[in-house]
Specification:
Blueprint (H helix, E strand, L loop, with lengths): L7 E9 L5 H11 L3 E12 L4 E6 L2 H14 L4 E4 L5 H13 L5 E3 L14 H11 L5 E2 L3 H8 L6 H12 L5 E5 L8 E5 L4 E5 L11 H14 L4 H17 L19 H10 L1
Helix pairs in contact: 1-7, 2-3, 3-4, 5-6, 7-8
Length: about 280
Amino acid sequence: MTAHTVPKAVTIAGSDSGAGAGIQADLKTFSALGVYGSTVITAVTAQNTLGVAAVHDIPPEIVRAQLDAVMTDIGAQAAKTGMLSSALIIDAVAAGIRAHGIRNLVVDPVMVAKSGDRLLREDAIAALKQQIFPLALVITPNIWEAQVLTGYEITSEADMREAARALYALGPRYVVVKGGHLAGEPVDLLFDGESFERFVLPRVPTRHTHGTGCTFSAAIAAFLARGHDVPSAVWQAKCYLHEALQHAYPIGAGQSPVHHFYAWWPARAEAQQEVQ
């Protein structure tokens, strides 16, 4: 396998010092799925399974320089964005995506951490909708993010469909509205502007869900980098996340992350679960 045939993806997101979400979760996902991952760090968070203690944004010019460095040498067949906390960072990322012609872009509109800590400033919401969404192949909001982005109240699958239509009108080619926060079976809806596709798997009874959104969007990017079309990439990503949730185990006192490498060292996770 040569450098030209290795599938590659780049993540443009924040760093999680607890390594359960953000850049760290994305790199784990890329590696687990056989994709070489590179990074553009937009913010550094002091974070663990209990919450976010501090956030420091990276200067926009350094964010852009990272993206330029990666794309002019290593390249990527797909990219994803996560935490883009300010309008200035969004400006820099959007300019870089346009300059490098990145088309397989997955946008996870990260707004709030699992702990409830806010990760997107109010002034950045409009910039995200206006500058990043029109560049996206896929956006992957959960229902809380979809509510903020559309102003709709979402309490049912019918509401999810209405929100997906409104989000599609903002420019992405596909919208995935994730329904895991609703009661009942977790349904994710994929909308391509004409029709909906439902993706359903049984709910996993675990509290160890830190980094699920990051992992799902990174997995979509990984499968796109490997040549899958969007519906296939979304389904394969959902299956991967389902297994990672099933094998999750505690590493801290709060919400621990999913187990990205369940296929490589499941025995260690099972032993840890027995100890706990």
